[in-house]
Amino acid sequence: MSDSDPFAAALDAIADPVSGRGLIASGRAAAPRVNAADATASVILDVTGLSGDDRAGLERAIRAKLIGLGGLRDVRIAMTAEKTARRLIVVGSGKGGVGKSTLAANLAVALKRLGAKVGLVDADIYGPSQARLLATEGRRPEAEGQRLLPIESPFGLPMLSMAHLVKPGQAIAWRGPMAGNALGQLIEADWGDVDTLILDLPPGTGDVQLSLIQKHKPAGAIIVSTPQDLALIDATRAIDLFRQATVPIIGLVENMAGYACPHCGEVSDPFGAGGAEAAAGALGVPFLGRVPLEIAIRKASDAGDPPAAHGEAIAQPFLDIAGALMGWLNAKAAPTF
């Protein structure tokens, strides 16, 4: 950069959101190309790894710095980006009603609290619930070109759900290919610097799971089950599906494990005890932990206030499971999507 180039100097006075260095010094941008004849400047800006907010902020800052300088009347900014590799972690179950979506939401929030660059996709196309769980009901995502821009939840977690794209209560009666295409739009959104996506799958082993495996192979799968035998039979089927597709099983979570009476403190086991841990041992997969059957979790979930976002003891099971997942991710290779 030449000291005599005021346009380059002005551009380099803007800090890169990642390194803190100037845009030119950090390699984010080259010196502007100025066309004196029409009083315009062109800037090529590398936005790889930047969130939508950071990109918009840089665009505003560049225009503010350059327009008017040396008589410039307009600045044309071309943004380029390398495709960010992302790991897809699916949260699945063999059947509905085992608390999979609540676990997925709290797992994603817990990962965010632990410092992960994480986003959440509500891949339960036919029964989306993450908008309620994460207090984003009634909001619609914007689009940039052909890509959706994720919605920022109140907990700092970017997310997308079919619930953001259809009217509340509207039934989604789509055949498999349409559901698969919709899921692809959610996954291929502009996730900025997110490197790990948590996907809340629909229950079972149907079209959505098969389409996902074929088009966006997950890096790993977490299976959720209650301790009871019937749920574990279906969880075993889900594990078998992912094993057939050579998707690593990160582990099994036992949900609704033990209920402590709020009056006397006695713990009972309406759905049995230890079944998921025993099944994990028999199947040769890691056991990631238990989440209790706790009315506070239910109330907070209905209110769009995930327990994992707070410091109470009820958040600890989710933080422990998130810690185990981070350990698994750190032991693996670089992101794959």
Automatic annotation (TrEMBL):
Oxidoreductase found in the keyword field: no
Keyword terms: ATP-binding, Hydrolase, Iron, Iron-sulfur, Metal-binding, Nucleotide-binding
Family the entry assigns: Belongs to the Mrp/NBP35 ATP-binding proteins family.
PANTHER family: IRON-SULFUR PROTEIN NUBPL
Database matches in InterPro entries: Mrp/NBP35_ATP-bd (IPR019591), NUBPL-like (IPR044304), P-loop_NTPase (IPR027417), YlxH/NBP35 (IPR033756)
Keyword Metal-binding: yes
Protein name in the entry: Iron-sulfur cluster carrier protein
GO biological process per UniProt: iron-sulfur cluster assembly
Positions bound to ATP: G94, K95, G96, G97, V98, G99, K100, S101
GO molecular function: 4 iron, 4 sulfur cluster binding; ATP binding; ATP hydrolysis activity; ATP-dependent FeS chaperone activity; metal ion binding
Role this protein plays: Binds and transfers iron-sulfur (Fe-S) clusters to target apoproteins. Can hydrolyze ATP.
Assembly and oligomerization: Homodimer.
Source organism, top-level taxon: Bacteria
Family annotation (Pfam families): ParA
Organism from which the protein derives: Edaphosphingomonas fennica
